Amino acid sequence: MLEHCALRVVENTAEFDTGDHETIILPLSGWCSLSIDGERFELHGRDDVFSAVSDFAYAPIGAHVVIEGEGRFALPSALATRHFEPRYVAAEDVPVELRGAGNASRQVNNFASVEAFECDKLIAVEVLTPNGNWSSYPPHRHDELEEIYYFEVTGGGFAYQRVYDGMELLAEVRSGDRIDLPQGYHGPSMAAPGYDLYYLNVMAGSVREWNFVDDPDHAWIRDSWADQEMDPRLPMTKAKTA
Hints:
The protein is 2% helix and 53% strand. By secondary structure, it is mostly beta strands. The protein has two domains: 5-93, Sandwich (Jelly Rolls); 96-226, Jelly Rolls. Strands 1, 2, 3, 4, 5 and 6 form a six-stranded antiparallel β-sheet that branches. It is globular.
């Protein structure tokens, strides 16, 4: 059971109170009109997570939210105490980072990273991995943070996620699956040949810091990227144009 972060996925319409959780409304597919304490926002969204970077909105603690649209919407959230105003962020303002090299190349949409978005406790990014590549690599942990991985895979395919903290687990994942990580090392996320991989990574804890620690047995891999090129298939997506 996670104490600090949460994730729901809703379809078309939803109405809820955020309570003690700050929450982001992120279109996975489709679009919506959105009300946060009576303030209106329009999310243009995207066809799916593999087609474009999406705009999103932020709802603070103690807010009432109404979603009316067509599509699927992720609601990553975190237990919070500080109040921020509702906000809209356009897709073209989401920082897109290319990370790694060679067959560890991937794209990170830093829509609610520590550096890109101000809030109390929530950290959330999207990662796109071309088929045959590995993400969340080398294996690592984030001290004092819980994590959720939510997956989608192209073409009805599958991928694999490795988790280990005392006992090692290799899980097959498909679109709509999630893995909760209360603590410990994890990675890689492996995109099978023929199937591109997406995951939404949600994190929160006692601090809003990455607290990134590589597994010392595999940390050397990061240095090997200096002599490798970025995968030319990246970036896989960008902001949707009108």
